[in-house]
């Protein structure tokens, strides 16, 4: 089940219900000079500004910001999708915003991020799907797997809301099914690999 780790260029993460706590416990252990960009879609209500970047910046050593349209991804940065827009990664590895219809009642949608990142990064991508209350992210994680990327699903027994991990497991066998501490260990191992 567990694929050998190889050099990766980016990590995309999706979460919904219970996601703030899961993401904090996942990223609090990473150093300020972490070697990869980390891009997160956490389902947010539209119509009001997100406070996620501020909240996480106060708690983490990593650089944290809201992803901006046309911005190039940089290592050692944790990016959050803005509310009200789908966040996509283009072939040149920059962000783009989309106002297409919500997917799984969500905009930003995890599937949009995962599928665009799979196209941009192929085998050099890791996708991580965490706790959540709908099916968003399952199809996108499957796309990452089809493009040769590494897929990780939070153990549904540990997830605050297991619907999202269970939906991913119904679609494909990921490379890893781990509790959060196992996902953190995997991220730390990625960072320590020689280029």
Which features would summarize this protein structure in a list?
30% helix, 195 residues, two-stranded antiparallel ribbon, alpha/beta, globular, Rossmann fold, single chain, 21% strand
Count of domains:
1
**Estimated structural class:** alpha/beta
How many strands, what sense, and barrel or not for the largest sheet?
A: 7 strands, parallel
Going by CATH, what is the homologous superfamily?
Methylesterase CheB, C-terminal domain
Fraction of residues in helix? 25-40%
Task: Kindly provide the name of the CATH class.
Answer: Alpha Beta
Strand order of the largest sheet: 3-4-2-1-7-8-9
Number of helices: 6
CATH topology: Rossmann fold
CATH architecture: 3-Layer(aba) Sandwich
Overall morphology: globular
- Overall pLDDT, averaged? 93
Q: End-to-end span in angstroms?
A: 24 Å
Tell me the number of strands: 9
Q: Using only CA atoms, what is the Rg? A: 15 Å
Question: What is the succession of H and E elements?
Answer: EHEHEEEEHEHEHEH
- Oligomeric description of these chains: single chain
Task: Write a short abstract of this structure.
The protein is 30% helix and 21% strand. With 195 residues, it is an alpha/beta fold.
Task: Describe the secondary-structure layout.
Elements (H helix, E strand, L loop, with lengths): L9 E6 L3 H9 L10 E5 L9 H8 L3 E4 L10 E4 L5 E4 L5 E4 L11 H12 L3 E5 L8 H9 L3 E5 L8 H9 L4 E3 L1 H12 L4
Parallel strand pairs: 1-2, 1-7, 2-4, 3-4, 7-8, 8-9
Antiparallel strand pairs: 5-6
């Amino acid at each position: 089940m567990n694929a050998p780790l190889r050099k990766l260029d980016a990590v995309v993460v999706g979460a919904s219900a219970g996601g703030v706590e899961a993401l904090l416990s996942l990223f609090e252990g990473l150093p300020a000079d972490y070697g990869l960009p980390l891009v997160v879609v956490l389902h947010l209500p539209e119509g009001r500004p997100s406070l996620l970047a501020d909240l996480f910046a106060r708690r983490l050593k990593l650089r944290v910001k809201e992803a901006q349209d046309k911005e190039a991804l940089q290592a050692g940065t944790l990016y959050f999708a803005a509310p009200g827009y789908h966040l996509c990664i283009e072939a040149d590895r920059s962000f783009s915003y989309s106002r297409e219809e919500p997917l799984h009642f969500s905009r930003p949608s995890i599937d949009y991020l995962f599928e665009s990142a799979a196209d941009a990064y192929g085998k050099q991508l890791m996708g991580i799907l965490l706790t959540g209350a709908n099916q968003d992210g399952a199809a996108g994680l499957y796309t990452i797997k089809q493009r040769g990327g590494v897929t990780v699903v939070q153990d549904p027994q540990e997830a605050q809301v297991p619907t999202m991990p269970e939906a991913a497991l119904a679609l494909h066998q990921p490379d890893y099914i781990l509790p959060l501490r196992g996902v953190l260990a995997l991220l730390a191992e990625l960072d320590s690999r020689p280029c």
